[in-house]
Amino acid sequence: MNVRECILISNLDTVKKARYLNKLFIQEENEYRAHLILDQSGYFRVNKINHPIESGFFTITLPGDHYTFTPDITNNSLTYFLVIFELGINDASLISYLSSLDREIFRLKQTCRFTFDEIISREHSEDFFQKESARHLFLSFVYSLSKEEYLGTRYPEGREIADKAIDFMQKRKYGELRLEELGRHLNLSVPHFIRIFKEKMTLPPMKYFTRLKVEEAANLLMSNDKTLATIAEDLNFSSAAHFSKTFKQYMSVSPTQYRNNYINTLENRQKRSIKEIEKAYALLHNIIDESPDLVFFKDINGIMMGYNRAFCRVMGQSGEDMVGKSDFDLFSREKAEFFTRRDEMIFRTNKPYKNEEWMVYPDGHKRKFEVYKAPFHDSEGKILGLIGISRDITDREENSRRKNQ
Fold first, then answer.
1. What is the C-alpha separation between 312 and 310, in angstroms, rounded?
2. Which of 61, 171, 273, 371 is most buried, with most CB under 10 Å away?
3. Are residues 298 and 385 in the same domain?
4. Alpha-carbon 93 to chain mean position
5. Looking at the domain assignment, is residue 287 inside a domain?
6. b or e along 268-290 (b: 16 or more beta carbons within 10 Å of the residue's beta carbon)?
7. Domain range spanning residue 78?
8. pTM of the model
9. How many domains is the chain partitioned into structurally?
10. Using CA atoms, how far apart are residues 212 and 170, in angstroms rounded to an integer?
11. What is the pLDDT of residues 168-220, one digit of tens each?
12. What is the DSSP letter of 28?
């Protein structure tokens, strides 16, 4: 097994959430992905099947799977661990085991975040043996999925108390926290609360709170160029030295090493992200191209952006010849003005429109089409252009006419 990449994504704003997460990912041959989602709700869609997300959501997607993670954009809290790994011919038993899981959805205990923190910190180390230990730790985790040490139940005794405490801690990561505050918030005495929390989370509450701060620090190190002193101050550590010491205690590497290791892998990650987008685009293009319906796209200015093969046959031109042209370049002035007025109405009302039109093929024969046009938008709802889909209804109408005679 080769662990290709370990990623921690945390506390994205609404725009970043929509851009980074809510898109189609298509996995390569031999590529597996382990997903652990904490502190978030929404839906995780794998091969057309929607799975609701609760904190502790875990699944492994397999080669060739396509998935989309749609988070609750109103909830800025997010801890998303993603491990991308590859298996080869020497991993037959593991391949068989993962296939037997059949994309099962697990709900894991909150303490599993510590395991993934450890995997990521070791994988980001420059030491070969640390990287090897990350691989073995991840393997141990995967093979232990059915054991009680990782699995959580829906309503275990004391779980609600622990969840409320963690939610309280999450909101105070950038400040101070006292056990007395937690006790008052939960209406429990401090000793009673400590006993319940440690029993459920395996760590005392204040150590767990420090762990949450370190997780947030790891995210800040990867997402901006703030100095260690600034991050230490933001997260309310007493000094940069205290921050560095605490970070290394939990993550096995210093903050500087952690950031440098991330930067070194960022270029490869960006290349893979571009490749994933290209694969998704190619799949969508092929689906559209195989449709017998006529499909075309225009931008907000009425300039043609693309077509499928069926549309090209009607026009008697290649897609390359038509891209970048307007209706006035492709049709008679009368038709172009008609199409332009219709498109302007769609953009003005921001609503789809359907009508019927006759189209003439290059050889002169005519066919009747049902034409559907609708605006399409960016992630913020701004109109980018329109899509047109035309379906040949000539034979359908002729058959209907014959039946009614």
1. 5
2. 61
3. yes
4. 29
5. no
6. eeeeeeeebeebeeeeeeeebbe
7. 2-275
8. 0.53
9. 2
10. 7
11. 998 888 989 999 999 999 999 999 999 888 887 778 999 989 988 988 888 78
12. P
